[in-house]
Amino acid sequence: TEKSHKQRKTEDENREFKVEWTELFAFIQNSNGLPTCLICQEKLAHNKKSNLERHFTTKHASFGSKYPAGDARKKAVEELQKSQQKSSSVFNYWVQSSNNVNIASFIVSQEIAKRGKPYTDGEYIKSCFINASEELFRDFKNKAEILNKIKELPLSAKTVKDRTVKMSSNITNQQIEDLKLVSALSIAVDESCDINDTAQVSLFVRFISSTGPKEELLGLLPLKGQTRGEDIANAVIECMEKHHIPLDKIVSISTDGAKSMTGVRKGFVSILTEKMNHEILVYHCIIHQEALCAQTFPEEICNVMELVIKIVNTIVAKALYHRQFKEFLVEMESEYADLLLHNKVRWLSRGNVLKRFTSLLLEIKAFLLEKGVDYPELTDDQWIQKFYFMVDVTSHLNNLNRKLQEKGNTIFSMLEEVISFENKLSLFAQDFERETLIHFPSLLKHRQENNSVIDIYYFKTAILNMREAFLRRFQEFRNSMATLAFVKKPLSADVTELNFSLFNIDIGAFEMQLLELKNKELWSSKFERLNADLEKLEKNKCDFSSQHKWSALKDLEKEDMIIFNTWNSIPDSYDQLKKLAFAVLSLFGSTYSCEQSFSSMNLIKSTLRNRLIDENLESCLKLKTTTYKPDLSKLSKEMQGHCSH
């Protein structure tokens, strides 16, 4: 009996809905395949004729007697079906309409976050939208309907904040999904303070996804207590573990070169490398010249920069002085209308501050004298010499930085620029030895105009010390030059010169695959074309830079993407070659992303938004810096449609 009961139960579940039941019992089949009553909307559990009949005769006897079986009932049931379809389409329209409003709300919230604007701008944008639409759609017949739709948009500050957090979380999930699939990734770690002096560590990851190289902010990690190397290391490890990213996937670490990062025993790098089971590449980015100069130049030269900033901030920060100085400059018909306020995060802006300060030095002296503010250094020849030396050095460093800041650079290109600059530093030292000062125009002009005796030995030593610092910072990379060049020129690679210890490569398979690649015309020709494409890119870069066509320069295809596309077109039978190529491509060619993120952070968490909590700051920053697109339709479907608030 138990067997027959199970069989009967299975038969009940597998029965199909019969079309004639609609006319007989006023039932239709719903989207789940189950019978639904057209009269009372009740759903039954099985497609069983006896169940439908019992429901109809017991609950809708009056309908049965009013519309007897035949034409009368057929017409009545058809009317019920029409009514059902109409209400269903109204409901579907409402759901779709609500979904559209939600997606529109997400889009506006995303634009607000990408531009670093406050959440409260949502209401302001909505107000603009409504007022502009009054005129824009004045002649439209459905103007009222359009305006109602805009008024339904939920864009309160709370809504924009919630949408931003949801989109940021969605992007994090996409990042994690891609990171699960990679065999190698690099991290760049940088520390700075926000407007409330909370230390924030930005953790960027670089990896090769199925669509190409990605450079992404994985987390903005607040340090509540101290900012020692171990505090930074703990925050980074906690973030990696939270997202289930194995530390063993890391092939390189890039930092700003500060002491908390580089300390031999207690620095961030040494603590993190202890946790790993393999060798990794470590380098400290030279974009962080603040650390570089502090470590290489005599203290008094660094103090020159600090005094310049102090004077600039004295004039700019005091509003009355600032206004008077502007008027003073207009009276003196100076070429500059104002001074630049220095932003501590961006050393690059120091070069601009120094240049402008140089141009306005006479005016600044006169203005401070008039105000009774005394800076004796401004008339001290030794201080002035160091000042002009800094002006010229930062100008050279800025030229290097502009090249290093280009997105999409490979580590090999960065190293070429660094080696070129090291050779320039040797040339600068010779320039001082010859006492020609060709490469130090500000210092040369000062000597010519004031008959100053330049302290040649002092400045030459400062330049040579800087060169030594460059050599130390990139020593590891010099040892791996052939490996780094492999991504561009695999056909000329010599296996004995390659460093495999970082990348977990099967050397035997690698050798065989490289030999096959070199002898297979179909694939080897791709790398000949690659070099032609890279030559063309480099020529365009040089041309656009010399013509100051910065927008055109920005729009050029990125070097790492051109290289990725070539390697991606090679079949997976060359898996060991591709593994090495993608691992090398995953090394940071610049940590400008980190630097830029702090400029963005200061823009987002400004003096007007200093109560922005860390989680929300990270969400805003992630949306501002990411190349991923949040899945808005998925996010919208996960939410219920809310009316405007």
UniProtKB/TrEMBL annotation:
GO terms for molecular function: protein dimerization activity. InterPro entries: HATC_C_dom, RNaseH-like_sf. Pfam families: Dimer_Tnp_hAT. Residues 556-622 form the HAT C-terminal dimerisation domain. It comes from the Eukaryota. This is HAT C-terminal dimerisation domain-containing protein. It comes from Erpetoichthys calabaricus. The lineage of its organism: Eukaryota, Metazoa, Chordata, Craniata, Vertebrata.
